Amino acid sequence: MKNLYVGNLPHSTTEAQLRAVFEPHGAVEKVSIVTDRDTGRARGFAFVEMTDAGEAEKAIAALNGTELGGRALTINEAKPKADRPRSGGGQRFGGGGGGRDDYRGHARQPREPRW
User: Which residues contact 11 (CB under 8 A, 6 or more apart)?
Assistant: First the structure.
């Protein structure tokens, strides 16, 4: 069993269309089009699970770069989530003091009222 990533999909692509593209190259176990959890709209990529790894490799070779709905498909072996680097840098800036304590170990004194 081999899981393939299919990118640059037209947002209107259906599971049946994707299955029809891959089935001439081998048995397709499952097709999962990834959708936005808020809007439910397709995000432009999908995963296709093929039962035979050899057929999956042939499908990658035959279909990578081919057009579907006017867009050139990007097809490669899907990598497990743990292996992919996280995007976005991970660190957020702005807001909050980030845990800094300007008093360096001394108890904070209540501020005087401003009136």
Answer: 41, 42, 43, 44
